[in-house]
Amino acid sequence: xxxGMADADRAALYAAGADGMLxxxxxxxxxxxxxxxxxIRVSGKRTCGGFGLAGSVLEAGALTASIADHRALVAxxxxxxxxxxxxxxxxxxxxxxxxxxxxxWGGRCSxxxxxxxxxxxWGSGKKLLxxxxxxKISLRHERPEGLVVYTLDAIGNHRxxxxxVVRNGKLEFEASVxxxxxxxxxxxxxxxx
Length: 193
Hints:
Strand content: over 45%
Number of strands: 19
Order of helices and strands: HEEEEEEEEEEEEEEEEEEE
Number of helices: 1
């Protein structure tokens, strides 16, 4: 059985600092917030991405993501010491809203970006529900033709290959929460074997 991420890699995702956060790139990393657009972007050598509303194009470092259907966090991180454009293994997130079953908004919409401002009920913890969404991912890489994209389940197992193309030196694929095995938020990009 294909285990996807190695146990050591999975452990590294959780073992970083006392606060549980992975170390960020050096202070040269860029963080940008655009409140009017409802976006936040982080650009570094080993991690880049951000949050955007449906219909937005998020550009952050080596990553460009065209977010469709529902707002989402889209990010990529090198699973090693190499920068994104040279990494042999990368982890991509595409995460839409997640709510407990029975969750309900109770506040009004903000006039600037349509964001909700109040929660009526958090719902139960028995089931976690995800909004369906897609994002077209474009990733600059020095060897995009030598890479393959896999869907990952919640514990890092490969669940299938994702169709990808190389265009203008970039690896392109569509991330979708809806997959045959259930909700998918994680993808591994790795060198072809």
